Amino acid sequence: MNGSVCFRIIAVLLCWSPFRLDAQRTADTVFRHPLDIPVALAATFGELRSNHFHSGIDYRTQGVTGHKIYAARDGYVSRVRVDAAGYGKALYITHFNGYTTVYGHLDGFYDEVAAYVKQQQYRRERFQVDIYPDSAAFPVKRGQWIALSGNTGSSTGPHLHFEVRETQTEYPVNPLLFGLGVSDRTAPVIRQLAIYPIGDSSTVNGVHSPLILPLEKTGGKYRIQGDVLPDVKGEVAFGIETYDRISGTENKCGVYRLRLLVDSLVWFSQTMNRFSFDETRYINSLTDYGYFMEKKVRINRLYIEPNNRLSIYDSHIRRGVISFDAAAIHTVSIIASDLHGNSSRLDFRFHHAPAENGNENEWPEWMKMPDFLKNIYERELVYRYNGFKMTVPANALYNKADIEITASDRLPSLYSKVYHVHNTLTPLHKPVVIDISADSVPERLREKALLVRIDEKGRMSGVGGAFYNGSIVKSSLSFGNFAIAVDTVPPNVVPLNIPKSKNMQGYRDIRIKITDSLSGIESYNGQIDGQWALFEYDAKKDLLSYTFDAVRLTRNTQHSLLLRITDAKGNETQYRSSFQW
User: Fold this and answer.
1) Which of 334, 418, 513, 520 is the most interior residue, by most CB within 10 Å?
2) Which domains does the chain have, with CATH numbers?
């Protein structure tokens, strides 16, 4: 390695100053488990999810709801949020040590908070509320009962989502660093190795495309199946498919730390201690987004794309991209570790030769620092094509992309051509703005017009949007096929347990399913005897439910029910019924 390259390495390492949090906690930063059942985790901090990192840990609740949840430490209830999706019913407790704990997907809150939340819902006439009580309103002690475990919001099964956040920044921090004492003796699994040629003149085994290699485990270590020797020319980078196993569960959990060593030199390192919600979408650059979209397998890149500003990287040499001056065989080790010290290691060799038409002492054009951020990524880009306009905001792309736009004739149910915008394998960090001319939309239907996305099988889904300046305009967080459609069909309402004039004595609640075929449910309003009633909405089940409330509803009386369900284009369905309770 020559002096010029050494200087670049030192410069990168000196300017890199990652956040570090020691695994050994003081008494001021130790939390108790929020449950009193045997500890079993279903997910870990930083786990790779669609468009985001998992920001906490998930406790199993034995497949049921209703387990008591306890405060992890003294503090006060600082926030209560109720939502149809996301964390569902969630409770936030601010502690006096600089951290806040979050308890999500709850079935309900302890009595005082539950009464307060219901009061606020009726006052605001809204199911979904986000409340910030005064710090003196609901003090709690360590081990105090605060909630019941549930399955609300976007949860796919009963569990408790538990987070630790820095109170001042609201950055989530790995909860397993806070003395929870989770036991784990199982090392991570490494399944596949990805080798990426970087730059136009680079190849892997003679081809300018990524090479995915299956792995095998022998003698406690991983290696490439068949122990093959990849041949690389020019710039190269690596990635792996890996996940962690927690003792006692078969779930594929997130890996805590990844390190890449080239000829025993630490070339790249990342650690899941802490991140910002503002940067969580960078997961689409950390992972090979295109490979995931095609194969539904996540490969963690062990290098940093040009416009990836994620903060989890501890150190790197040349952003993880590898090249050398002369042809030689090099040794690579990739180590995947969990927070408990269990680790797995992949060792392999590769043959490297300089690119035939490039100087290996020069960085690829898109990797140059610090000038690489002063390029196309930091500028707003506007594309126009035959009645179509797309605005790509600054810093929406992670890497260079040659955006292509074509069009095909409109289908009978559409009011524009179908515009094929680049491809769905390229991720976006920020939404692009799609603008399609609405010349073909009759004036009487303009308020009902919206953008739709059409998949490879011709299936249509609503994107949304509104008529503006002769076009239908809406933002989108992905590329794809877009067109204009109209939505004149009101939502569908199906009563599940309340036919008209039914005697509901002995029932706990009223249940009604609501769906919309295109623009989506925008709002709902339920009234009983002409008064607003608290109908809870479970978006994942398309379910509205009203729990009978003896405080607000007279028993042994005939009652009238009116539901108004409205979609995003103003189409409304009214459902009326009467019942005795």
Assistant:
1) 334
2) 29-177 (2.70.70.10), 189-367 (no CATH), 376-486 (2.60.220.30), 492-580 (2.60.40.1220)
